Amino acid sequence: MGYWKSKVLPKIKKVFEKKDTKKSAAAAEACKSFDESKEHITKEFEEKKTELQPKVIEIYEASSVEIKALVKEPKEPGLKKHSVAVHKFIEELVKIEFPGSKPVSEASSKYGPALIPGPVFFVFEKVSTFIVTEEKSGPTPEAAATTATEEREIVLEEEKKEEVVEKKEEEGKKEEVVEKIEEEKKEVVVEAEKAEPTPTTTEPEAKVEEAAEPAKP
């Protein structure tokens, strides 16, 4: 065990260190080569911008939350943590021939995205121009205010209609009450008339009638 720690393990570490050093150096060279082609990539990007926009937005919308966050705010810790998802996203950009995506994809396959942050973030920056434009193209504050005003007006109109309907219902109820009262009055009058006694001929009147009759011969 002592021999392993003192002899074998240090040699293994040196081998990996050498590999990492060579890998980092190659990655740095790839970054340098990419930097030299940035001007050409930007020119090609501007020429294809209109054609690329819907395709890029489609790829972006289908991506994970982590990738969306990296596109908007590129950070190296996130690049290391989500290197697999980053490489996959770049491969999707290669399929639509996004300028600069192919050399970045090749370098990412060899060295990993974490060792070539410059080229990866350069591509992400170009992608983000479409995303920012898409978000800005949403409703403006003026349009939102107009919409809110229209909604309030609709609500007020509905409330007015409800008030009119309620008033009509109340008036209808009042008319019904008045009609019932009138009917009850009529019934009371009729009942009162029925209850009055029929007038009969009094005794003095009968005598006057007899005196008025002429005497028979």
UniProtKB/TrEMBL annotation:
<dbReference type="InterPro" id="IPR008469">
    <property type="entry name" value="DREPP"/>
</dbReference>
<dbReference type="GO" id="GO:0005886">
    <property type="term" value="C:plasma membrane"/>
</dbReference>
<feature type="region of interest" description="Disordered">
    <location>
        <begin position="134"/>
        <end position="217"/>
    </location>
</feature>
<dbReference type="Pfam" id="PF05558">
    <property type="entry name" value="DREPP"/>
</dbReference>
<feature type="compositionally biased region" description="Basic and acidic residues">
    <location>
        <begin position="149"/>
        <end position="196"/>
    </location>
</feature>
<feature type="compositionally biased region" description="Low complexity">
    <location>
        <begin position="139"/>
        <end position="148"/>
    </location>
</feature>
<feature type="compositionally biased region" description="Basic and acidic residues">
    <location>
        <begin position="204"/>
        <end position="217"/>
    </location>
</feature>
<protein>
    <recommendedName>
        <fullName>Plasma membrane-associated cation-binding protein 1</fullName>
    </recommendedName>
</protein>
